[in-house]
Design brief:
single chain, 135 residues, alpha+beta, Nuclear Transport Factor 2, Chain: A, six-stranded mixed beta sheet, 4 helices, 6 strands, NTF2-like_dom_sf, SnoaL-like, SnoaL-like domain-containing protein
Length: 135
């Protein structure tokens, strides 16, 4: 298996756990130590196993949790560290995401997740610039 395909598979398992509300699966995705962190969209950074896993428990137990799909995953592997950059489609809105992993034995475990809105290109800005041109 290519060195990045296991990381892509771990990333896919993370999104499967999220989309199915599988808290036990989500918990297994994360490294089991206090050096993990997460930044959910609009949240401050959270650090530590209990806090990060607790945030996922609360999100996954919410019956109104958002629907999520991972698109365009790209793995970058550097020894026992890796990150997957991707687009999250959350209830129809695109977010940029970075999922960082550490190799633990033969598995990749998440150590950091961060996602945030992607700035949209606003056609109005183009129109505004055009209307202010001096001819």
């Amino acid at each position: 298996m290519a060195k990045d395909s296991k990381v892509i598979a771990a990333n896919a398992a993370f999104y499967t756990a999220f989309s199915t509300g599988d808290f036990d699966g989500m918990k297994r995705m994360w490294a089991d130590d206090d050096a993990i962190s997460c930044i959910h969209p609009g949240w401050p950074a959270i650090v530590g196993h209990a806090t990060v896993i607790g945030s996922w428990r609360d999100i996954l137990q919410n019956p109104e949790r958002p629907q999520i799909v991972c698109a365009e995953p790209q793995a970058i592997v550097d020894g026992d560290s890796a990150r997957v950059l991707c687009i999250e489609i959350v209830d129809g809105t695109a977010l940029a995401a970075a999922n960082h992993f550490r190799r633990v034995g033969d598995d990749w475990r998440m150590v950091h997740h961060q996602s945030s809105p992607i700035a949209q290109i606003v056609e109005q800005a183009e129109d505004d610039r055009a209307s202010h041109r001096v001819h």
